Amino acid sequence: MNNTFDFNRFYLLVRRQWINFGKIYLISLAVVVGIIIAFYAFAVSDALEHMANWTQTLNFRIPLFLLLGLLFLTMMASNYFSDMGQKPKAIIELLIPASKLEKFLVSIVYTVLLAFASYILVFYIIDLSFVSYLRGITTSTTTYTNAEGTLVVIDNLAYLFKSELPKQFGYFVFLPFLFNSLFLLGSLAFRNFHYIKTAISLLVFIGCWIGIVVFIMERVTRDTIWVGGGFWQQEVNVLKAVCAVGVVLTLFFWSVSYLRLKEQEV
Prior knowledge:
By secondary structure, the protein is mainly alpha-helical. It is 70% helix and 4% strand. It has helices at 7-50, 54-57, 61-80, 87-94, 100-137, 175-189, 194-221, 235-263, and strands at residues 141-145, 151-155. A two-stranded antiparallel ribbon has the order 1-2. α3 (61-80) runs antiparallel to α5. The longest helix has 44 residues, at 7-50. The chain is globular, with a radius of gyration of 23 Å. The relative contact order is 0.12.
């Protein structure tokens, strides 16, 4: 099988992979939905019981959305090529009449596009349901007049996806894709315990990277004085650099994953 791309084969492979991966995906998504509902239900019931401040009650949403989302996406990526570590299943997967490029692109469809879209959708629906309930039983806005005499209205029960996020947040949108590329590579690089081994490797890499950066910065900046405003003293320039490096690393790890998949043999 050559490495050309054929849309008909690609479409058939997407349908075929749902038979194997669909069950794992649906079970994982159901667990995610259960966790989200549990957090919302506990927060709402606790607030109703103690008449707590609604703004503080919903503070858990953004951390939960980010952390649980990363966990879900990495679990999907880590499980997609897990069959490659089991010889009988690996033989079946490798004998599928589709090119390696098509197989890799299907993995992106399931572990990035489908997983990302479904996670955002279920979180949005759950948040919409609980916040709508709260807005129906209590006053959701606070009104006051500022020093200029202007009437200010604050929405204390804003929906998550209407909440204002720090402007720096946009520079880190690459993180889900970077983690996906790392754990997708881990599912091909390790024969078993893919998630644990990839997570440990990632922690070791991060630790080494931080140590090297701190060591270099100490050596470079020791006994020196900053004069004037430099390029790296502006936060936006640092964030742009971090984002650019993140995008490059994501593409690099995806490329390595594809090459690793090409090397797989029966």
